[in-house]
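Justification of computing resources. Each target in the renewal requires a structure prediction run like the one illustrated here; the chain below, 213 residues long, is used simply to show the kind of job we budget for.
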Amino acid sequence: MSGGVGFIDCDNDGKLEIITVNGSSVDRYKNGGDPMITLYRQEDNLQFKDITADAGVTRKGWGMGVAVADFDNDGWLDVFVTGFGCSVLYRNKGNCKFEDVTAKAGVNADGFPTGAAWGDYDRDGNVDLFVPRYVHVDINNLPQFGGNERYCTFMGVQVQCGPWGLPGESDLLFHNKGDGTFEEVSKKAGVNDEKAFFVMQGIWAGLRQRRLA
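Resulting structure tokens:
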């Protein structure tokens, strides 16, 4: 399971680069995983070049989703990548050169996060980060086919066809403190309900109340 694609103008030249999120397999993940994303820089005539290594976005794991925003308001778009077991925040230092600031910023979303979404929920001028998490999966004790979890047959192969029977994981909300760091406030904000599991993507929206006469 994986997916996700993102667009970013990481060098501010007016042309969009492409980020593809890479999956993995259980065996490869246990041996270090695969590059979580690949970054393609747009050159002339709609040609793209793989600049993943040169850009410094080389963290390995099992990529799930990607969200792009300028979290530190320095004029360069940054990248947050969700992945099974770990996530990563790449700060754009300029011209598509990134540094991993996950630990420094305090936004390591572990467990099974899938999508992610940036939004300034408190209107302080700094984008905050919401990270939904799917279900709890123990990579060393995977559900067995024919157990309590449902399974399907696809092209003659038994596969898990849904998360039934697996426990949920709470979602995560990271408040941007404006100094390059975040505070995890999901419980304080009331968005950490484990009963709301099977969550794969969050969307920010502004709801305006209108008084009716």
